[in-house]
Design a protein that fits this description.
single chain; alpha+beta; Herpes Virus-1; 3 domains; seven-stranded antiparallel sheet; disordered N terminus
Amino acid sequence: MAAANYLQSEDKFLCSICLDVFTDPVTILCGHNFCKNCINEHWNTNDQYLCPMCNKVFNTKPELHVNTLLSEMVAQFRQSAQQKASSSSSEQQVSKPGEVPCDVCTGTKLKALKSCLVCLVSYCETHLESHLTTAGLKRHQLIDPVENLEGRMCTKHDKPLELFCKTDQTCVCMLCTVLDHKMHDVVPLKEEYEGKKAKLGKTEAEILQMIQKRRLKIQEIKHSVDLSEEDADREIAEGVQVFTSLKESVERGLNELINTIKEKQKTTEKQAETFIKELEQEISELMKRSTEVEQLSRSEDHLHLLQSVQSLNTNHPTPTKDWTEVNVCPSYEGTVVKAVAQLEETLSEERKKLLAESELKRVQQYAVDVTLDADTAYPQLILSNDGKQVCVGDVRKNLPNNLKRFSKCACVLGNQSLSSGRFYFEVQVKGKTRWDLGVARESINRKGQIKLSPEDGFWTIVLRNGNEYKALAGPSVLLSLKSPPQKVGVFVDYEEGLVSFYDVDAAALIYSFTGCSFTEKLFPYFSPSINDGGKNSASLIISPVRVN
């Protein structure tokens, strides 16, 4: 410490009443020394004249004698202490605004290092030394420096607030416990402090947990923004593709319209050229006949004229074609309307196709790796080692009849389940004449004959007789498909209550169950159906999902 060299003996110069360095030290009859004012005030406030140190009682007020030697030593000590304290104060921090100053320092106030709850004084490093070295002062309770130490005193009894009244939830002094709070539940401040501190620790942990949750939520939101950006980019790309295709269709329609009109115009021009050529030929013949007629009409030879007229009519007959009704009038009426109607039909088909492709791409992003659950498989089914293929065998295997296994129907469930969110998987059905596909809830009947319907926990489509597709919606819905699907995609949106089936290669929607109410786990459902004399021996194959 800065003042350790001289404060080690400071307790020799301390008054036991004021606990500070002697001021005008005096000695009483028992030999103990006190500040002159301190001992006088002590005797003035007590009924007896006794020594505060040894408790010796005096019948009359003792005469006070100035301790000259001690006074000189105290003066020297003060001078030395002031010099050393002055030199050490430059090394300590001066109290700044907002910091607790030392209450003992005169002049420049140094920053307080501790506050004493007994003395109700804040001390800098130098003035704190006595509390660290003096036996009597060591028992005082020191805390980090605080202002308004008076606020730690009972305003009613002017005693330290050392207790806590749990009944009134307030701090009290010793006198309060025997007066105003006599019958209350009172505990030491430290006990209540420990309890409150424990609660604060729990509260702090809860707050930290709340902070952590919110930080995780921030990460989640940021991740959602990233996903949204990716979705936006993907949607923009798909939108560009869709509108580019539609634009190309419009341009093709426009080009076809222009070509149609131009072809009509060319046909009209060729027809007109033919008519004009034929008319010009007739004109040429008529002009030749006109010349002959004119020459003949000038002849005055009666015989020659008559003979020539007969020859003229025979060798140069007058053209008989009637050109009155012949017209070149091309009709373009309805060409544009017809082209627009055709374009609308083309765009509608193109739009449906593009939207179906876009929709399929959207659901394919929820693809899950589905495998078959052997514990649910009908004993006559044959599953591949990787759990991706299933077909019907000729022999019924002797397998444990557990609760999960289907006992009468040739079907099997997937290992994976869904109780929230979305999932998608694809199954190859190529080469089969019968099959069932879809999803089933966990509590379905697996023993005996089963009925495929939503009421019984099944959402499925089936193929029968090689070309008859149905959605078993209870009642069944006959499906009209342009071509037999070779690969079927199955999509489930649990919260939306949606189960959809897609023709993957054609990127076309086959059927959707909508407005479903799911309350338990859903499992992929597969049935390769009966062998059908070998016609239906092909396997159902769970295929990896490839997004184009």
